[in-house]
Design brief:
The chain is an alpha/beta fold. The protein contains twelve helices and nine strands. The chain has an eight-stranded parallel beta barrel with strand order 1-2-3-4-5-6-8-9, surrounded by five helices. Helix 6 packs parallel to helix 8 and helix 9 runs parallel beside helix 10. It starts with 10 loop residues before the first helix and ends with a helix. The structure holds alpha-D-galactopyranose. The site of alpha-D-galactopyranose has 6 residues, from loops.
């Protein structure tokens, strides 16, 4: 891969008075994107390496190697680390919920497994990870139930959420603890997330922030919905992080596979969209502590596999050769306009 010689302004410096600029990384991107990552970003998140299945694939057998490498990478480059994620319905191995006969465990056993996992993981990274996504995606997108069906919910009941926060707080009283979800700007889901977090706060649960995943595209959500979500969540008095920002060039239900590269007009639309979003984020900089992209450059994005397997997407600020895209220029412009 040709290495782009960097003369452009570093995002982390452009926004240093506003928020952290983060990227999700993986073992391969830390190698091939090291120059890009260290130049522009001052925060990282593990794309997969800190999920339950990665850290404790079998009961009591912890595999910390890949996660430790990420911590060393952050240390080498003076970056903050956001931990992702402790309790989720995905990427969690079946053993967590089952006994040796494959039958569901009791509520007590499940909560004890959760406690022990959280204490081990959060305890290990106490000095390196300042914020954790404690519970990921517990709220339902549709239907009339507030919480999505999951084995956590089935076995432990809705209190599994508060318990996860309590255990994380015991393990590291200094860590900032987040509830993290997607479709966070959709008005219906926004209200559900708001109510969940509000009720956690009323019970005295140690929760400090809401993570807006921000897997957005050129068409949705609208700026008005994003603004309304930021205001609503901020009204709880919590910190907000954008945790997984990317900007797919396809509408979510669009399954077309004929686009082989983005043409200038598409890149221009993406640039305009990123610009207006960063204007908004800057406006709310008092509430927003961190903006993490789900990846750093278009050569490594989960959207190449989802929702259409093998279809290339170009959702980030840097292209496949790690060169700044028009979207980078416009985002950088927002930062400098603000400081005039
Ligand atoms: C969700 C999860 C992330 C990641 C993305 C897709 O948003 O929170 O960890 O798995 O899906 O890559």
């Amino acid at each position: 891969m040709s290495m782009h010689e960097r003369t452009e302004a570093a995002l982390k410096e452009l926004f240093q008075e506003d928020f952290h600029i983060g990227a999700a990384v993986n073992p391969s991107s830390m190698k091939k994107q090291e120059q890009l990552l260290s130049y522009h970003f001052n925060s990282i998140t593990a794309e997969n390496e800190m999920k339950f299945v990665s850290l404790q694939p079998e009961e009591g057998k912890y595999t910390f190697e890949a996660a430790d490498t990420l911590i060393s990478f952050a240390r080498k480059h003076g970056m903050a680390v956001r931990g992702h994620t402790l309790v989720w319905h995905n990427q969690t191995t079946g053993w967590v919920f089952e006994d040796s006969q494959g039958q569901p465990v009791s509520r007590e056993v499940l909560l004890e497994r959760m406690r022990s996992h959280i204490h081990t993981v959060v305890g290990r990274y106490k000095d390196s990870i300042y914020a954790w996504d404690v519970v990921n995606e517990a709220v339902a997108d549709e239907g009339d139930q507030q919480l999505r069906p999951s084995r956590w919910l089935d076995i432990a009941g809705p209190e599994f959420i508060a318990k996860a926060f309590e255990y994380a707080h015991e393990a590291d009283p200094n860590a900032l603890l987040f509830y993290n979800d997607y479709n966070e700007s959709d008005p219906l889901k926004r209200e559900r997330i708001f109510q969940l977090v509000e009720s956690l706060l009323k019970q005295g649960t140690p929760i400090h922030g809401i993570g807006l995943q921000a897997h957005w595209n050129l068409f949705a959500p609208s700026l008005e919905d994003i603004r309304a979500a930021i205001e609503r969540y901020a009204s709880l008095g919590l910190k907000l992080h954008l945790t997984e920002l990317d900007m797919s060039v396809f509408e979510f239900h669009d399954r077309r596979t004929d686009l082989l590269r983005p043409d200038p007009s598409l890149l221009e639309r993406q640039a305009e969209r990123y610009e207006s979003i960063f204007r908004l984020l800057k406006e709310y900089r008092d509430y927003i502590g961190s903006v993490t992209f789900w990846g750093a450059a278009d050569d490594d994005t989960w959207l190449d596999y989802f929702p259409v397997q093998g279809r290339k997407n170009w959702p980030l600020l840097f292209d496949e050769q790690h060169r700044p895209k028009p979207a980078y220029e416009r985002v950088a412009g927002v930062a400098s306009a603000g400081s005039l």
